Amino acid sequence: MGNYSTFIKRLQDIMRNDAGINGDAQRIEQIAWMLFLKVYDVKENDWEFEESNYESFIPEKYRWRNWAANDESGNALTGDELLNFVNNEVFPTLKTLTVTKDTPIKKSIVQTTFQDANQYMKDGVLLRQVLNVIDSIDLTDNEDIHAFGEIYETILKDLQSAGNAGEFYTPRAVTEFMVSKIDPQIGDKMADFACGTGGFITSWLKALYPKVNSADDRAAYDQSIYGIEKKQFPYILCITNLLLHGIDMPKVIHGNSLTKNVLDYTEDDKFDKILMNPPYGGNEKDDVKSYFPEDIRSSETADLFMDVIMYRLKKNGKCAIVLPDGFLFGTDSAKTNIKKKLLTEFNLHTIVRLPQSVFAPYTSIATNLLFFDKAEPTKETWFYRLDMPEGYKHFSKTKPMKREHFVCCDEWWGNRVEIADEKSHDNATQTYKAKRYLIHELLTKNDKGEIAEINLDLCSYPVEEKVILSPEDTIKQFIEKRESLDDQMDLKLKKILNLLGVD
Predict the structure, then answer these.
(1) Cα separation of 377 and 335, whole Å?
(2) N or C end of the chain, less CB within 10 A?
(3) What is the arithmetic mean of pLDDT over 265-283?
(4) Residues 6 or more apart from 440 whose CB is under 8 A from it?
(5) Which of 342, 346, 437 is nearest to 383 (CA)?
């Protein structure tokens, strides 16, 4: 099959001539459903070998092997006949496969994968050429699958520069660092409630796999993951990613984690480990906010995911989450109440401040890694600022963040000491790269002794290192702050109306 770049270049060169494909995002979305069907067909070969009575969920006529595969006889469907078959038979059939609560996940994923998938190509001859390139991928043994898994990972990375699709990709350096600190164990159940293309899940599986020593361990490993993804495109990529990683029953749901009342969650809905990079900068509608208690009801999507996590983490469970700076310094009542709940019901033991360009080009909003567990209330929180590596001004597609850039933090993690910054001149206030803060140092109380404000914006970057935000990110932050103020005003007005006895 050759290397990744030639494989993608061949597809690109063909698709460039098709009038239906408009830009990188559509190109990769088009490739995504074909790759899924190809990988699924390879998996079905295995399942047919393992189960004597295996029946495909896909009607025989629409299985990859029977229409998409290149039989090299020159008789494979092509041109208008192929286009007509894909648009008017394959897609309508796969979108409407009947799924019941008894349908096994490995079968139901076909229908959920195609539910909102798109077929953009308009030239049947070019479509045949693309199918032939994808069919040429050899996935006959584990080594081939592993090699293609690496290629697939690079495809996901490329999404970062394909418009908004980059929001679904968290750099592997970040997911692997977070997973290493969460310490996966056989028997743990992990969750990601906005799992995108499955980066945290695959990093989790990679870290857990060396601990598999028996058939029981393997069964626990296979069942250790749970994901939800709201958007169709990353959902397809995630399912394919997990099939490539040997998970035959990927428990990933196409849905929205924010549309269930958090008070309805039971012990069965809780997890030992939660890993997340929730979407942020988004604003949720009132009907979504109604699923959350009023005091922690926020317009900011990332805040609502924090609420979900706090209701779905098991006793003694651990969480690692990526959150924007706005969460650390936000003072509106919802953010203050979420942070109050976090510090009084959970142990927020570590916050790692990340350089601003980690998620570029998707966003230049600064982000942080929060690590907490549900063991006891917070007594102290350590802050650690991860500075840019030597020789880097900022991260980019050509100079991405690597796992080795976290090594200094790995070393500090196991042997925590305060690290003071060098003072720029004699009268400068002492600042810190790493420092421990006791709980009372993080809070401001009012006259009644109640927590009025919580500031977690500590060990931050020197002002001169702060990057000027793009117009898009500036507007995002402005909208977030304005929504936050609107919420505060609504709550105050509601209290006044209540005092006046008006409903």
Answers:
(1) 18
(2) C
(3) 92
(4) none
(5) 437
**Does residue 170 register a pLDDT over 90?**
no
369 has a pLDDT exceeding 60: yes
Question: What are the structure tokens assigned to 500, written together?
Answer: 């006046």
Strand residues in 231-344 grouped as ranges (E): 252-254, 271-276, 313-324
Sequence-distant (6+) residues with CB within 8 A of 81 are: 124
Confidence check: pLDDT of 165 > 50: no
- Structure confidence at residue 73 (pLDDT): 77
Give me the pLDDT at residue 492, please. 74
Strands 419-420 and 432-438 turn out to be antiparallel
- Name the nearest CA neighbour of 14 among 86, 78, 90: 78
Q: Quote the CA–CA distance of 163 and 17 in Å, as a whole number.
A: 21
Q: pLDDT tens, 110-143?
A: 999 999 899 999 999 999 999 999 998 888 777 7
Helix (H) or strand (E) run with residue 192 in it: strand 190-192
Query: Could you tell me which residues are beta bridge partners of residue 371?
Result: 320, 350
Task: Give the whole-angstrom CA distance, residue 85 versus residue 70.
Answer: 16
pLDDT digits over 177-196, tens only? 999 999 999 999 999 999 98
| Nearest-10 crossing angle of helices 333-345, 471-499 | 90
* Res. 487 pLDDT band, cuts 50 70 90: low
Pairing of strands 190-192, 271-276: parallel
Nearest 5°: the CA angle 114, 117, 120 is 135
The DSSP bridge partners found for residue 321 are 276, 370
DSSP letters, 264-291, are G--GGG-EEEEEE----S-B--HHHHTT
Q: In terms of C-beta density within 10 A (0-12 exposed, 13-18 middle, 19 or more buried), how is residue 131 classed? A: buried
How far apart, in whole angstroms, are the C-alpha atoms of residue 352 and residue 146? 32
Catalogue the long-range contacts made by 85-89 (C-beta closer than 8 Å, 24 or more residues apart): 86/119, 86/127, 87/119, 89/61, 89/62
pLDDT in tens, 4-61: 567 878 888 999 999 999 887 788 889 889 999 999 999 999 899 999 999 999 999 9
- Six-digit token string for 140: 């006959």
Number of neighbours of residue 453 by Cβ within 10 angstroms: 16
